[in-house]
């Protein structure tokens, strides 16, 4: 199955909001929420995409001609590429009736593992969502990263116990989900967490803990203080705060501040292997990609995920070859401008 076929199929079953665009740049869906759009003016997802496009690649082919190594090692696991599928939930609400959250996670976790990468899975008020994600990850020998919302500590302990049983090699929290409407006014309260609260959660997890939703050096330093093993530079696709910077605008300064102390991941508008190269050059260890993996699943199931992952890998490999980087560790800041 080609990626063009995936897109064509997705257009027939994506629901009324997502248009399965050839390039997912946030423009067609804008501020459509429900739907895949951004909050308020709807410009943050567009800005995320545009800022990656403003970066240019410095070509240099005066170098040794030898095979390229795209493998990435994180927390003791080796992946074929530095690519993760980002956590996405409420599938029927935002993307149409073809899959619910459990069905989507089942396909995503399995197909990402088969493609040599891994998926972050979403969370929701329905406990079955995390239960299903944990089962899917367990079936793939822990090759997946459950992503919990910033619930109250007792709810988190219940979910973390489930995640431990699944044998997941890491766990994440999208701390910026504090801005999602369904998380507000819950009893017991859910939302923002102090460093001390995060430290308790990190200890409870007992595996490397990833804090997703970091957009400032100050936030990164607090995540480090809390004991996080990694952060995801992310503005939640523009869905929780209008008028904030693009992730490409803040990645380098955050990586410079804490990159020697923890793994740095980034999401937000990354749509091609060229974009992945740019993110790695700015200091990321790997990237997360969200909406296009939804299109891949809706348009082709496991075959769609395989096709999209192969497309990204081929583009990344070509870019590395044309810049003289033979491994991910050789990608450097001076390769972009």
From TrEMBL:
<dbReference type="GO" id="GO:0016491">
    <property type="term" value="F:oxidoreductase activity"/>
</dbReference>
<dbReference type="InterPro" id="IPR000262">
    <property type="entry name" value="FMN-dep_DH"/>
</dbReference>
<feature type="binding site">
    <location>
        <position position="236"/>
    </location>
    <ligand>
        <name>FMN</name>
    </ligand>
</feature>
<protein>
    <recommendedName>
        <fullName>L-lactate oxidase</fullName>
    </recommendedName>
</protein>
<feature type="binding site">
    <location>
        <begin position="267"/>
        <end position="271"/>
    </location>
    <ligand>
        <name>FMN</name>
    </ligand>
</feature>
<dbReference type="InterPro" id="IPR013785">
    <property type="entry name" value="Aldolase_TIM"/>
</dbReference>
<feature type="domain" description="FMN hydroxy acid dehydrogenase">
    <location>
        <begin position="63"/>
        <end position="337"/>
    </location>
</feature>
<dbReference type="GO" id="GO:0010181">
    <property type="term" value="F:FMN binding"/>
</dbReference>
<dbReference type="InterPro" id="IPR012133">
    <property type="entry name" value="Alpha-hydoxy_acid_DH_FMN"/>
</dbReference>
<dbReference type="Pfam" id="PF01070">
    <property type="entry name" value="FMN_dh"/>
</dbReference>
<comment type="similarity">
    <text>Belongs to the FMN-dependent alpha-hydroxy acid dehydrogenase family.</text>
</comment>
<feature type="binding site">
    <location>
        <begin position="290"/>
        <end position="291"/>
    </location>
    <ligand>
        <name>FMN</name>
    </ligand>
</feature>
<keyword id="KW-0285">Flavoprotein</keyword>
<feature type="binding site">
    <location>
        <position position="239"/>
    </location>
    <ligand>
        <name>glyoxylate</name>
    </ligand>
</feature>
<feature type="binding site">
    <location>
        <position position="212"/>
    </location>
    <ligand>
        <name>FMN</name>
    </ligand>
</feature>
<dbReference type="InterPro" id="IPR037396">
    <property type="entry name" value="FMN_HAD"/>
</dbReference>
<feature type="active site" description="Proton acceptor">
    <location>
        <position position="236"/>
    </location>
</feature>
<keyword id="KW-0288">FMN</keyword>
<feature type="binding site">
    <location>
        <position position="234"/>
    </location>
    <ligand>
        <name>FMN</name>
    </ligand>
</feature>
<keyword id="KW-0560">Oxidoreductase</keyword>
